[in-house]
C-alpha cells in the first residue's frame, strides 16, 4: 500500500536489512543515539528523503550513513507498505538482503548500537503481543528478547515483514496500527 502525497506530508525511507549474523539469518535493528530526534528509540536504519530522492535511494543512503553498510539497487528485494506515522512522516520500508555485509560501523551522532534479530525470533508465535487499548484497539509489541519490546512504527514494519515474507501472508496490512504516545515527536 502506498500513501498518496498530501500537503505537509513528509517522507522517509528505512531499510529492513536481512543478513547472516554468526551463521543465523537475521535482520538489523538499531538503537538511536541518546540525543536528537527519536533519542534512544529502536528503529531501522533510515531517514527523511532529500529533494528528488526515491524512498529506495534514501533508505540505501541512510544505511550507509548510519551503520556503514553499502547496498545497491541489486540488493533490494522489494518494499513493504508505507506506514503513516503519528510524527507526520510516511515511512517506506525497503527490504534488502546483503550476502557479505561486513561489520556495521554505527555513526555515533545517529546510532547508539546495532543489533541483530534472528528470523526465527521474528517468526516465533510468542514474538507479537497485542496489548488492549481504549476504544477496543490493541497496541502491538514485538517482543524480541527479555526486556526488549519494539512498538509501531518499527514494530509494525517488523510484523509485516514477519507476516508477508516469513509466514507467507501477503494480505497483512499495518497502516492503522496503534502507536504509543511518545512516537508523536
TrEMBL record:
InterPro entries, sorted: CoAse, Nudix_hydrolase, NUDIX_hydrolase-like_dom_sf, NUDIX_hydrolase_CS, NUDIX_hydrolase_dom
| CDD domains hit by this protein | NUDIX_CoAse_Nudt7
| Pfam families according to UniProt | NUDIX
Gene3D superfamilies assigned = Nucleoside Triphosphate Pyrophosphohydrolase
Origin: domain of life: Bacteria
Q: Which PANTHER family does the record cross-reference, listed alphabetically?
A: MITOCHONDRIAL COENZYME A DIPHOSPHATASE NUDT8 (PTHR12992:SF11), NUDIX HYDROLASE (PTHR12992)
Family to which this protein belongs: Belongs to the Nudix hydrolase family.
Output this protein's name. Answer: CoA pyrophosphatase
Q: Which organism is it from?
A: Actinomadura graeca
Q: What is the lineage of its organism?
A: Bacteria, Bacillati, Actinomycetota, Actinomycetes, Streptosporangiales
Amino acid at each position: 500500500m502506498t500513501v498518496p502525497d498530501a500537503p505537509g506530508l513528509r517522507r522517509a525511507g528505512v531499510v529492513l536489512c536481512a543478513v547472516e549474523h554468526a551463521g543465523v539469518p537475521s535482520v538489523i535493528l538499531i538503537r538511536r543515539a541518546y540525543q536528537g530526534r527519536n533519542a534512544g528509540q529502536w528503529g531501522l536504519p533510515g531517514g527523511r528523503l532529500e529533494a528528488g530522492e526515491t524512498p529506495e535511494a534514501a533508505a540505501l543512503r541512510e544505511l550507509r550513513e548510519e551503520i556503514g553498510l553499502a547496498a545497491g539497487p541489486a540488493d533490494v528485494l522489494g518494499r513493504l507498505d508505507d506506514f503513516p506515522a503519528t510524527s507526520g512522516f510516511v515511512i517506506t520500508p525497503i527490504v534488502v538482503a546483503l550476502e557479505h555485509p561486513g561489520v556495521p560501523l554505527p555513526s555515533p551522532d545517529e546510532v547508539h548500537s546495532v543489533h541483530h534479530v534472528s528470523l526465527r525470533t521474528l517468526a516465533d508465535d510468542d514474538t507479537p503481543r497485542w496489548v488492549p487499548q481504549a476504544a477496543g484497539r490493541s497496541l502491538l509489541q514485538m517482543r524480541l528478547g527479555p526486556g526488549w519490546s519494539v512498538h509501531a512504527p518499527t514494530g509494525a514494519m517488523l510484523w509485516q515483514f514477519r507476516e508477508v515474507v516469513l509466514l507467507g501472508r501477503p494480505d497483512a496490512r499495518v497502516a492503522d496500527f496503534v502507536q504509543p504516545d511518545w512516537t508523536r515527536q
